């Protein structure tokens, strides 16, 4: 992130952060904190303001603003989103604890009585408490260990509730926030900041996809079974070249039938877009993806994107050489990339069993046509005989000049993380490593 636009974005975020802190200072954040109760309450006010601001930043980070996403990369935005979300919750919980403790010290009553008083006597505190609970639930269900046990559909529904949590929290910010209660510049600024965030969310998460859906008229043309549990979905529409999609990118797909209209899921293009059609290839690993085999030709589709910077434009290696490493169905964006990459290209495909994805014939034909090298590595990761696959030594054996190449990695998160660590161990530069992480 070194372009002038990137610096401008960072400056805007920091400037707003400075204004938020200034609101607290002008409200007597330091000068009026004479007693322990004052200091606790003052600390509660600043953590509350910062939590509210970070919640707005959280919304903007994944508002699907095209130029912002292209500038930073969707994987980086996802990482920032996760870190900012955790910071937001910590600030929010600190706000609740500090304010409660400060008011209890002032009122000199039992903790239970103070909590009861806050909920009954202060405007919208009950709503804010519910909002806090919703936001904590979102963070808990986003933890990897929990997501592995929660159906994606349930997690997605919970994740959407963060918007309700932010709204419920906003309802008490102006009526009860000492820094915002009086009409004036501070209150106007807070209104504008929240209104601008809402406008960005509606413009890029609602209005833009609907308008593009009307313009391009995407529909399913056919669904092809590539292998057991793996289907390719072919789509056509109008003026698809204007989407600006590139091999390696993905869309959030919303299929407009009764069973699927309520959810949008990220899937990469599995073939280079030609301006007339698009194709995705999906493995049935969850309820939603398994049911895609039942899609009917003619089903209308809303596609949010293209998203991601997992493209040939990210190549930085002076040699021009490329290594593609895929795990299972993670081959889809790399298969699309392979159509357009030139020069010395090596493709490594890690699978449990040969034929897992059903794209093997296509890959063999593409490799032959482009003069690339293909290594298919089959074996269950739980099998001791397969433990060495994609280890640093094995990668060096397969690709002796790996440190001279741009490396694109796509696969299950654990596999992608392990391969990335192994490549770094071998000395591959960070700027030559390209991965993509999806997020909703």
TrEMBL record:
Domain FAD-binding FR-type: 213-313
Keywords: 2Fe-2S, FAD, Flavoprotein, Iron, Iron-sulfur, Membrane, Metal-binding, Oxidoreductase, Transmembrane, Transmembrane helix
SUPFAM superfamilies attached to this UniProt entry: Ferredoxin reductase-like, C-terminal NADP-linked domain, Riboflavin synthase domain-like
Alphabetical list of CDD domains matching this protein: FNR_like_3
Residue ranges of the TM segments: 44-67, 87-105, 125-146, 153-172, 188-207
Keyword Iron included in the entry's annotation: yes
Record-linked InterPro entries: FAD-bd_8, FAD-bd_FR_type, Fe3_Rdtase_TM_dom, FNR_nucleotide-bd, MRET, OxRdtase_FAD/NAD-bd, Riboflavin_synthase-like_b-brl
PROSITE patterns in the record: FAD_FR (PS51384)
Cofactor(s), names only, from the UniProt record: FAD
Topology within the bilayer: Multi-pass membrane protein
Statement: the UniProt record of this protein carries the keyword Endoplasmic reticulum: no
Subcellular location as annotated: Membrane
Name the UniProt record assigns to this protein: Ferredoxin reductase family protein
Species in which this protein is naturally found: Paraconexibacter antarcticus
């Amino acid at each position: 992130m070194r372009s002038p636009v990137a610096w401008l974005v960072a400056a805007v975020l920091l400037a707003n952060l400075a204004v938020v802190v200034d609101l607290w200072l002008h409200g007597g954040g330091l000068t009026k904190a004479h007693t322990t109760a004052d200091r606790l309450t003052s600390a509660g006010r600043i953590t509350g303001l910062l939590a509210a601001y970070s919640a707005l930043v959280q919304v903007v980070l994944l508002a699907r603003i095209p130029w912002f996403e292209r500038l930073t990369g969707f994987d980086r935005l996802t990482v920032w989103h996760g870190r900012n979300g955790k910071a937001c919750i910590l600030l929010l919980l600190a706000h609740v604890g500090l304010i409660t403790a400060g008011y209890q010290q002032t009122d000199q009553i039992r903790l239970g009585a103070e909590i009861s008083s806050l909920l009954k006597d202060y405007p919208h505190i009950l709503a804010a408490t519910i909002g806090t609970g919703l936001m904590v639930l979102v963070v808990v269900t986003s933890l990897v260990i929990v997501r592995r046990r929660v159906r994606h559909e349930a997690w997605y529904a919970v994740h959407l509730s963060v918007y309700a949590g932010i709204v419920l929290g906003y309802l008490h910010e102006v009526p009860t926030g000492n820094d915002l209660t009086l009409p004036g510049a501070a209150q106007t600024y807070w209104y504008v900041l929240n209104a601008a965030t809402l406008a960005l969310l509606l413009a890029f998460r609602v209005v833009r996809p609907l308008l593009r859906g009307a313009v391009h008229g995407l529909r399913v043309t056919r669904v092809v079974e590539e292998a057991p549990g793996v289907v390719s979905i072919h789509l056509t529409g109008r003026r698809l070249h204007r989407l600006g999609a590139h091999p390696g990118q993905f869309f959030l797909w919303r299929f407009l039938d009764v069973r699927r209209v309520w959810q949008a899921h990220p899937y990469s293009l599995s073939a280079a877009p030609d301006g007339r059609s698009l194709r995705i290839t999906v493995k049935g690993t969850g309820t939603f993806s398994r049911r895609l085999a039942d899609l009917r030709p003619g089903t209308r589709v809303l596609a949010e994107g293209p998203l991601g910077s997992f493209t040939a434009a990210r190549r930085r290696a002076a040699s021009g050489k490329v290594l593609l490493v895929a795990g299972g169905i993670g081959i889809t964006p790399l298969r699309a990339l392979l159509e357009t990459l030139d020069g010395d290209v090596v493709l490594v495909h890690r699978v449990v069993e040969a034929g897992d994805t059903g794209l093997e014939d296509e890959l063999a034909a593409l490799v032959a046509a482009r003069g690339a090298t293909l290594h298919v590595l089959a074996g269950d990761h739980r099998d001791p005989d397969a433990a060495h696959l994609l280890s640093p030594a094995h990668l060096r054996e397969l690709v002796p000049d790996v440190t001279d190449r741009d490396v694109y990695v796509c696969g299950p998160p654990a596999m992608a993380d392990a391969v990335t660590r192994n490549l770094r161990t071998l000395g591959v530069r960070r700027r030559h490593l390209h991965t993509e992480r999806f997020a909703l």
